[in-house]
Amino acid sequence: MNFKIDTREKFTVITPVSDFLSDSLTEEFLKLVQSFYEKQISLVINFKNVITTNEHFIKQIAALKNEFYSKNVSFILCELTLPVIAFINQLYMNEVLIITPTETEAWDIVQMEEIERELLSDEE
């Protein structure tokens, strides 16, 4: 497995172990994320080890984020390295993705979104 998985009460953290997300790792990552999507489990993806990636992967991440949010499930990226942040900005995906500087801040967003969903469901 090329990913560290840390299961929490309300979400799961996935951390790629490799510094580069190749096409073979991308496929493995997508299958892994899909399993959480099907179970409607919120995800925090920690990119602290990733130094390089490609446009195809980032666009797939953006599509996944949209799929998760369409099911009212959180999908947050955190601890991106400077090269990855620059690449995402270059692709103008920084406006699409939810990115936090630290994993703790990602957890906070997941919990705030959970509270927001609960409040909105109470209003209906």
Please give the structural blueprint.
Elements: E1 3-7, E2 11-16, H1 23-38, E3 42-46, H2 55-70, E4 75-78, H3 82-90, E5 99-100, H4 103-123
Parallel strand pairs: 2-3, 3-4, 4-5
Antiparallel strand pairs: 1-2
Kindly describe this structure.
The protein has 124 residues and is an alpha/beta fold. The chain is 50% helix and 18% strand. The longest helix has 21 residues. The protein is globular, with a radius of gyration of 14 Å. The model has no long low-confidence stretch (mean pLDDT 91).
Characteristics:
alpha/beta, Transcription Regulator spoIIAA, five-stranded mixed β-sheet, 124 residues, single chain, 4 helices, 5 strands
Number of helices: 4
The main β sheet shows up as: 5 strands, mixed
Supply the CATH architecture. 2-Layer Sandwich
Percent of residues in helices comes to: 40-55%
Alpha-carbon Rg, integer? 14 Å
How many DSSP-defined strands?
A: 5
What does the average pLDDT come to?
Answer: 91
What is this entry, summarized?
The protein has 124 residues and is an alpha/beta fold. The protein has helices spanning 23-38, 55-70, 82-90, 103-123; strands at 3-7, 11-16, 42-46, 75-78, 99-100.
